[in-house]
Design a protein that fits this description.
The chain is α/β, with parallel strands linked by helices. The chain is built from 6 helices and 7 strands, in the order E-H-E-H-E-H-E-H-H-E-H-E-E. The protein has a single domain, classed as Rossmann fold (3-Layer(aba) Sandwich).
Amino acid sequence: MASTTLVLGGARSGKSRFAVDCQSPRARVTFVATAQAGDGDMAQRIEQHRAERPGHWRTLEEPYDLVPRLRDACAGADAVIVDCLTVWVANLLLRGDPDDHILKQADELATLLALHPAELTLVSNEVGLGVHPATEDGRRFRDLLGFVNQRLAAAADRVVLMVAGLPLIVKDVRA
């Protein structure tokens, strides 16, 4: 049976590299990217991430409608990586989606995890350990992403917290 993994960590903690490195070299992997190149810095980050992935992997870009796109991606792959939920939640907030709609999407994603449609790895930032956001929007984002992460951590088979490039296993129901 396929398993599901949620990889959490701070900025530059090694989350994406860990998610990539955990895949079998021969697996048919689909990478679902949620970022959009809105400026030069983001375009550079996207290119850097692309360069770190094997060339034979399939990449799908989906900034908003993650759950249906993920269902499709799982149907044709041995493994799927979603990188990252942090950007996905930010995209939905910037589009003007209300909190309850975003949490409903997270619940639908958690339901999909329970179906074990493929080896599925989700990447997200753990933003609750940092500085208290100075703005109402910042606090709303931090809190909402925390609730999304909680829902997905509860549904995932495995939760890994990346700290300074090192994986700490928080949960592993497979063990």
